[in-house]
Amino acid sequence: MVCKKILVGLTTSLLCLIVYSKSYGQSATSQYFEERRRKSALEDDRKSRLQREQKKNVSPSYPTNSNETLTRTQQEEIWAREREKETRIQLEKEGKHYTVFNETSYVKNENGLRRVRVKDKYGFIDGKNVIQIGVLYDFASEKFYNGLVSVTLKNKIGYLDEKGKLIIPYSTERIKAYEKPELFDTRELFYEQLAVVSKDNKYGYINVSNKLVIPLIYDLVYNFSGGSGVVRIGNKHGLVDISGKTILPLVYDYISTFSDGLRAVRIGNKNGFVDKSGKLIIPMIYEETRYGFYEGHVYIKLNGKWGIINKLNKTIVPFIYDEAFSGSFSEGLAKVKSNGKMGFVDKKNNIVVPLKYDDVENFSSGLSIVKIGNKQGYINNKGEEIIPVLYDDHGYYNDWIKVKLNYQWYYFTLKGEKLDVDEKTMKIKPMVYDSKGQWQYNIGLQMVILKNKFGFIDENGKQVIPLQYDKANYFNEGLACVKIGNKWGLIDTKGKVVIPILYDNADQFFSHDCIAMQLNGKWGFINKENKVIIPFTYDDYESKRFVAEGLAAVRLKDKWGFIDKKGKIIIPIMYENVGVFFKEGCIEVELKGKWGFINKENKTIIPFMYDYVHGFSEGLAAVSSGAIYPAWGFINKNNQIAIPLKYNKVGHAGFRDGIVDVSIGNKWGYINLTGEVIVPIIYENVSYGRFYNSEYYQAYLNDKSVKFDKTGKIIE
Question: By CB neighbour count within 10 A (0-12 exposed, 13-18 middle, 19+ buried), where does 579 fall?
Fold first, then answer.
């Protein structure tokens, strides 16, 4: 089936976080919060352009002539600089100091501190965005461990507390320990002034002076936490203190890290908890514990069901649920799951949020994100849906929420009231319209909707095109499709009707003066002067190829073929189905129930012998035999089997960077162009991602993700 017209919008944001340095005793009065999902192409474009300009030894250039067209990226950068300049001028008038952070970590430590970067220096801010540890270090770790964080200054590593006081002095010896195999084979970072070291596959601990304080006698040891370290000989675990004295004997099958003052311990299938001294606090009667105590509570399993207990071993939530979650109670409510559905209970096991959602997130600021299928919304801590579960994505700011539906963002208060937000300045404006479309920066217009009527406004909010249409699409090449009643036409950016509003349907994805329109139930093509260039004779069409290949797929009754821009039939209308685009000179088509490949001259490249196929990529195409239980593999353009047909599924996009995702059963992994498995086929799901200038492949197993490069090497 030919893929229909899909508009894919890309919403990017450039938001700055402006705060005052604690050293000046000021708090922030003007803030631009960095969007949580900051993975936009905007930063990629900015960095690459700056690098190119720096190589030329010139300042970054932007269009300055009013007749020149600004890209959205360039325009947003200009707006960002203007906002920063306005803020700086205002603060200077008030005699205040400010700092613009280039990066703010999403990792919030238990002490409330987050790492920030200004240019090439690092420091930490608190929850009020006040600098607590000066921005003066060459590097800093994101996370505090047992009250300490590692920082680097002039190639030396030291450890600070949350006040910024140097607890473990700067030293190069700890760095040299990595470089001196005659001392140790490996050495980890310091935790509680001890670091794990190994020699000849035996492990122990050194102190900050590089002195071995706990001998190399263990098969494995773990970082110190809570004044003790977990050690293992064979398959049995124990605990030692900082002097090496045994706190717990090596009889346990598992000992966790400290969480909320307690460690989980397990022997066989019995689990309990001990305190820092090794005293058993929670008896070893439970079948499983997963996340450790949090704020005095923990999920724990008994008789095949999950519940929540406190540190006195009192049952807070009875053992009747099917799953456990991290965090236990959040803002007095705990998420629970039964029969595949999730909700929330309070500490008396009262159901506050009915168990009707497929997924829920812990409460924050009185709100939780809930999902049903692929849709999501927000509930409050009373279980009320303040934003209905019908949106595709979400974002969160300090005092309002945004949600996305059909590539368009909508804004709400934390109480679920609609907001009108200026997407250029991210400032709240009075609510005038029921809804707004995306800003079209290249023409300076925005679609608006009021009482089911569509129009367009400029950047000053003035109606340029009145609210008179029953439907409107975004502008494309200076024209927009509009509808009155059941008829469609096109208007220009001044609102002038360019194509009369008399057609049954219109395709907004026109290009190169070739617009698909429907008249009397048949599709044809006109130009911008409303001249018919291809008669209205076809039952369906796909015009996107006019851009890429100069051909469009058309359908008559139940057969497909291809025409050029003059309407000439280039490939006969004889096929039952056709692919989306020509790839590497050929396209997949179906004939008599079997798929093969043809070129633009209708020459058969791959014979019609497969039940399913995907397009060629990097010289190979995925093919399948077996209509009911298909087995997938890959062929080359000589129809030779390059990779055997043995997979249940393969990635529809095909090879990228020489690798492709494949599945056997319900497990996924990656293979290369020779069929070699480079990422084991053991994962529940896989995906491709991009962050700034880094590309990576990601796999998921047991709610945890692992990132790989294109060679299959783990990068995180």
Answer: buried
Length of the chain equals 716
Least confident of 48-62, 158-172, 637-651: 48-62
- Calculate the CA 43 to chain-centre distance: 15
- In three-state secondary structure terms, 432 is coil
**What Rg value do the Cα atoms of the chain yield, rounded?**
31
pLDDT at 544: 60
Contact criterion met (CB below 8 Å) for 550 and 567: no
SS3 letters for 584-645?
CCEEEEEECCEEEEECCCCCEEEEEEECEEEEEECCEEEEEECCCCCEEEEECCCCCEEEEE
Q: DSSP labels for 448-508? A: EEETTEEEEE-TTS-EEEEEEESEE---BTTEEEEEETTEEEEEETTS-EEEEEEESEE-S
What tokens were used for 161?
């507390």
Strand (E) or helix (H) holding 291: none
| Sequence letter at residue 368 | S
Contact 710, 697 (CB under 8 A): yes
The amino acid occupying position 551 is: L
Q: Please report the sign of the dihedral spanned by the C-alpha atoms of residue 565, residue 569, residue 573, residue 575.
A: negative
In the block, tokens 């949020």 appear at 353
Place of tokens 């168990």: 355
Sign of the C-alpha dihedral, residues 527, 532, 534, 540? positive
Burial 148-179 (b: 16+ CB within 10 A, else e): bbbbbbeeebbbbebebeeebeebeebeebee
**Distance between CA atoms of 479 and 472, rounded to whole angstroms?**
11
Q: What is the residue whose two structure tokens read 């930063």?
A: 43
pLDDT digits (tens, 9 = 90+) for 670-695: 999 999 999 999 888 888 655 444 57
Q: Is the pTM of this model over 0.85?
A: no
Of 677 and 184, more confident: 677
What tokens does 361 get?
A: 């997130």
Q: Where are the domains of the chain?
A: 17-148
Provide CB contacts within 8 A for 323, sequence distance 6+.
306, 336, 337
Query: What is the C-alpha separation between 716 and 709, in angstroms, rounded?
Result: 10
φ, ψ for residue 353 (rounded to 5)?
Answer: -120, 120
CB 208 within 8 A of CB 190: yes
Alpha carbons 435 and 614: distance in angstroms, whole number? 39
CA 181/CA 194 separation, integer angstroms = 19
Is-contact 23 17, C-beta < 8 A? Answer: no
Going along 180-290, which residue ranges are E strands?
186-191, 194-199, 202-207, 212-218, 220-221, 228-233, 236-241, 246-252, 254-255, 263-267, 270-274, 280-286, 288-289
Share of the chain above pLDDT 90, in %: 45
Instruction: Note the pLDDT tens digit of each residue in 125-146.
Output: 887 778 899 888 988 888 887 6
Phi then psi for residue 205, to 5 deg, are: -135, 145
At 547, phi and psi to the nearest 5?
Answer: -75, -50
Q: Could you give the CA distance from residue 680 to residue 607 in angstroms, rounded to a whole number? A: 33
